[in-house]
Here is the input.
Amino acid sequence: MTKSPMLIALCILLLSSCQVQENDRFPNIVVIFTDDLGYGDIGVFGHPTIATPHLDRMASEGLKFTQFYSGASVCTPSRAALLTGRLPIRSGMASSQTRVLFPFSTSGLPASEITIAEMVKERGYATGIFGKWHLGHLPQFLPTAHGFDEYFGVPYSNDMRPTPESRWVAAQNYPPLPLLENDSLIEESPDQRLLTKRYTEKAIDFMTRHSEKPFFLYVPHTFPHIPLYASSDFEGKSARGLYGDVVEELDWSVGEILQAIRDLKLEEETLVIFTSDNGPWLVMNEEGGSAGLLREGKGSTWEGGMREPTIAWWPGTIAAGKVTQSLATMMDILPTAAELCEWQIPEDRTFDGVSLLPIFNDTQAEVREVVFYYLGAELFAVRKGPWKLHFKTLTPYVGQQAESHDPPLLYHLLHDPSELQNIAEDHPDMVQNLRTVAQEHLNSFVPPPSELEKIDTALYNGSKSYPAFY
Ligand code: MG
Here is the structure.
C-alpha cells in the first residue's frame, strides 16, 4: 500500500515537533563579571605578561567582542545596568554626587526594577550569585530580594572596611567587611586571599546541584578591585606582579567554571559571558590595570573607562574563534536572556538593550548603532557607528572638575581608538547629527530621584556607629 505524500509530510512534521519538545530546555546562562579589569588586561586582549590561558581558550572556542560597553564607569551603576538591562539613570542608580553605594547608604536597587534573576526565575530557572553585589547591603536590597535563590559574597567593594589612616571620617569608621550567605552575616573581615577560590567552589557546587534544570549563575568577582589579594597558589607567580597574580587567579576560576560545565555535559546548553564592570583604576599605578590602547580608565567616559574585555562562549551555537566589531553593551544581556527563555519583555518601561543572539548565530553583523556614556547622572558622550562625540570629559580621581566642550570633541573610533585626534572641525554635519541623537535621548524621559544620594549622615560623619546587622 502506498502512503500519500501528504501523510508522510504529516508524520515528518509530528516527529520533528516531538524532537523539539524532547530537547526543549531553556539554556543555562552564566555571567562572570570582574571588578575593575581593564580592556588590555588579559592575553587575548593583548596583555604581554599576564597569562590567561583559560580566557584565551574561551575566546578561541567562542566569540570575542572588541567593542562591548559597560553601562557606567564605576561599580554600582554598572551592576544595575547589567542586571536590569536599563541605563542606571532610569532606575535611580546614577548620581553625579554619590557615584556608588557606600556602607552609610540607606538605599539600593529599587524593588520595582526587574532583574535578569527575577526574569529567568519566572521561567523556572535556579538562580545564584557568588561574589560582590553592590546594589544595596540592607536586607530589602540584597540579591535574595532581587530574584536570587542563593547568595554568597560581599555586599559592596572590598576597600569598604575600617581604614583608620584615611582622612575621610566615613572610611575610618566603616564596619569590618561583611561576608554574607543569603541574607545573613557569616563572617567579618574574611580572608580576602581566599575569596576568588571560595566564589569558584560555590559557583561549581551551584551548577552541579542544579544541573537538571536551567540555571542562571552570576559570578561578580571581588577582584581585581583594590586592595589586591591572591591565594598562595597564585601569589608571587605572575610576571606582572600582584595585579597579575590576581588576574591569573580569576583566569583559573574561569577555567574551573568552564571545565565544570563540560564535566556536567552542559556545554551545548550553556551560554557563558565574561566581562568587567568598568575600566582599570589607573591612579592606583601598578596596582591598577591597563586599558590597553584605549584612553583613560575607571571613572571616565573615555573609552578606557567603559569598553570592556568581553567573551561569549556557547559551543554548538557560537562558532569557535569568532571576533565581532559589533557594538554591544551589558544592557544587551537581559534581552538576550529574555529571548533564550522566551520571556515577554514588558512594555511598561524602557529597556536599553537588544538581543545579541543574531551575533551569536551569525545572522547579523551588527545589533546596535548607538551607545550613551553617562558619568553619574549626566550624559557626557554619545557614540553612533564609528563616531563618538564628547560634551564633557573628566580625568578621574585626581580632583579635577569635568571639562565642558563646546563645540564638543569628535573622534572616529575605528580610525582612532585611542581618542587622540579631535576632528570636530572637519565634520560639522556629524557633530550636529550626534548632538541630535543625544538631545532626543535626553528629551525622551524624566529620570527618577537618585537612590545613591540617600545616605545616613550620622554614619557618614562618624557621630553614630554601625548597627548590629554588620
Ligand atoms: Mg568596579
In short: The chain has two domains: 26-368, 378-443.
